[in-house]
Design goal:
183 residues, mainly alpha, two-stranded antiparallel ribbon, globular
C-alpha cells in the first residue's frame, strides 16, 4: 500500500475511534492499527514489537509524527486525566476524499476494530493486544491457560485472571472477524 493510502486508512481509523467514544491518543491508534493490520491483513506494513504497554510500532509512531508535519493530523489537548488526542485536519480530510476507493475497501475492518476498541481504556487495550500478540506470535500450546500464563510472564502487572479474560475476549474477536470480508 502506498504511503498516502496508508495515511487515509489511519485517518479513517482515528475518525472512527473518536466517533465510538475514544479520546484517540496514540496508544489507542497503535493498538487499533495493530489489530487492523494483523487480524485482517490490511497491508499497512508497520513492524510491531511487544513493548511496555503491549504491541507497539516505532514505524507507526514515526508515521503519525510525519502526518502531523504534513498537516494531516494535529494534536489536541484534553483535560486531565487524558493525554493528547490525535485529530484529522482539513488536509487529512482531502487525503481521505482522494482515497475514497481505498477507504471503501477497508471500511468493514475499520468499523469492526473501532466498534470493539473505541470505548476501551488503555489498560484493557494493553491486555487485549498482548493477548492477541501471544496468540499469534508466541510459541505456546494454544490453551487459554498457557496463553494467560505467558501474558502474566511478559506483563507481571497483568493478573492471571485478567489475562485469562483477555485471551477469551481475543478468541471471540478472532472468531467474529472471520465473518468480515475485505472488498
Amino acid at each position: 500500500m502506498e504511503r498516502l493510502q496508508s495515511n487515509a486508512v489511519l485517518l479513517s481509523l482515528i475518525d472512527n475511534l473518536q466517533a465510538k467514544g475514544s479520546w484517540c491518543g496514540e496508544t489507542h491508534v497503535q493498538k487499533a492499527t495493530y489489530f487492523i493490520q494483523e487480524l485482517f491483513g490490511v497491508p499497512l506494513v508497520f513492524d510491531f514489537i511487544l513493548y511496555k504497554h503491549g504491541p507497539f510500532s516505532f514505524d507507526l509512531n514515526d508515521e503519525l509524527t510525519a502526518m502531523q508535519a504534513d498537516q494531516l493530523l494535529k494534536v489536541q489537548s484534553k483535560p486531565r486525566p487524558y493525554g493528547p488526542s490525535l485529530v484529522s485536519t482539513e488536509g487529512g480530510e482531502r487525503i481521505k476524499k482522494h482515497f475514497a476507493k481505498t477507504l471503501n475497501k477497508y471500511d468493514k475492518t475499520v468499523q469492526f476494530v473501532t466498534d470493539r476498541f473505541g470505548k476501551r481504556g488503555v489498560a484493557e487495550l494493553e491486555r487485549l493486544s498482548t493477548a492477541f500478540y501471544v496468540t499469534q506470535r508466541e510459541n505456546v500450546d494454544g490453551s487459554v491457560e498457557s496463553r494467560a500464563k505467558r501474558i502474566n510472564e511478559l506483563k507481571p502487572h497483568v493478573k492471571i485472571e485478567e489475562a485469562h479474560e483477555a485471551v477469551l475476549m481475543v478468541d471471540e474477536i478472532i472468531e467474529d472477524a472471520r465473518g468480515v470480508q475485505i472488498t
